[in-house]
Amino acid sequence: MDISVYRPGELSAADRAAWTALQSKAHLNGSPGLANPFLSPEFALAVGRTRRGVRIAVAREDGEPAAFFPFQRTAAGVGRAVGLGVSDCQGLVHRPGFTWDAQELLRACGLAVWEFDHLAEGQAPFEAGASGTFPSPVMDVDQGYETYLRQLRAQSPKFTRTTLAKERKLGRDSGEVRYVHDERDPVALRTLMGWKSAQYRRTGRSDRFAHPWINQLVHQLFHTRSEPFAGILSVLYVDGKPIAAHFGLRTERVLACWFPAYDPEFAKFSPGLILHLRMAEAAAADGIAYLDLGRGQKEYKDSLKTRELLVSEGWVTRRHPVAFGHRARRAPVRALRNAVLSRPELFEPADKILKRMGKIRSKG
């Protein structure tokens, strides 16, 4: 295996095209998860413009690119998945039948350790280092929206009936309901980011948009458009006013859900749920196979999903003191967080405390 490592700007147009081609054929080759937008060259290049240390390893067989491995690294050799903390799918994009040795790959990349938290299924050499596996719910629309809606009615009849009724009531009470699947107005994006920041603070969570690099990344991806990849801003309007919005990423077959939020003034109408159903309808019309709702237990995801993918978190390490030190620092934090999230008797009190703190901060 011949492995070369490039800075994002050094990747040739031919290599980028080969990377995209591997993703385009992934669903035909039995690896549909590799078509996820977070595994696209566009995402890696965008992160590379906002964060230091982004590199792309290209493995070649007989001179032809066979696999692409984007990562971030420090000078000490600590490696992370590209965009760790905001990326919902990670791993190595490869052609069918390609096998690799994780230790050899890390050595070629100058890494003592590589950390991931949303590793795609089927990455066996990396999965050996996984410390946990978690569901990532999806909405299948490859058979069309009406088929999806029939399945939703069968598995969640009350939820489906109530959500559609709320949409009708929203129109009667507040004015014309209009949905724009691919909104190009940057003002709408700023509105969404403002809602999301307020939601983070209200619920006591860390505000991702308080980090300048995440702001820059989202704006870059909003303006990134090619045949196989685009940042998609979807907005639900009532009487000309935005009341819910979502920004995500799409490839030819997958729409990755990323940042949804809504105006709390309209909370009683469940505008976020209405928005997701409209997104599913438009995505199906665009030939999208499924919407990936992302890792994390949420009631709305359980209601909308048709099935689940699995993603893993953990570390791939070499026998190196930097790897031991990094894992020793990070493992207890991850283990504690996952223990709280997986146990209702721990999560619910912690969630209430965070929301109470959020209310105190907002009043201050």
Describe what this molecule looks like in 3D:
The chain has 364 residues and is α+β, with helices and mostly antiparallel strands. It is 42% helix and 26% strand. It is built from 12 helices and 13 strands. The protein has helices spanning 13-24, 41-48, 102-109, 124-127, 145-155, 157-174, 186-202, 212-222, 271-285, 299-304, 321-342, 344-363; strands at 2-6, 54-61, 64-73, 78-81, 93-94, 113-119, 130-140, 177-180, 230-238, 241-250, 254-262, 290-292, 307-317. Strands 1, 2, 3, 4, 5, 6, 7, 8, 9, 10, 11, 12 and 13 form a 13-stranded mixed sheet that branches. Strand 3 (64-73) and strand 4 form a beta hairpin. The longest helix has 22 residues, at 321-342. It is globular and about 65 Å long. The model is unreliable at 350-355 and 357-364 (pLDDT under 50).
What attributes does this structure have?
GNAT family N-acetyltransferase; 12 helices; alpha+beta; BioF2-like_GNAT_dom; 364 residues
Helix content: 40-55%
Provide the low-confidence segments as ranges.
Answer: 350-355, 357-364
| Overall number of strands | 13
Structural class: alpha+beta
Structure at a glance:
The protein is α+β, with helices and mostly antiparallel strands and 364 residues long. The chain has twelve helices and 13 strands.
How is this fold's topology laid out?
Layout: E1 2-6, H1 13-24, H2 41-48, E2 54-61, E3 64-73, E4 78-81, E5 93-94, H3 102-109, E6 113-119, H4 124-127, E7 130-140, H5 145-155, H6 157-174, E8 177-180, H7 186-202, H8 212-222, E9 230-238, E10 241-250, E11 254-262, H9 271-285, E12 290-292, H10 299-304, E13 307-317, H11 321-342, H12 344-363
Parallel strand pairs: 4-6, 11-12
Antiparallel strand pairs: 1-2, 2-3, 3-4, 3-5, 6-13, 7-12, 7-13, 8-9, 9-10, 10-11
Helix pairs in contact: 5-6, 11-12
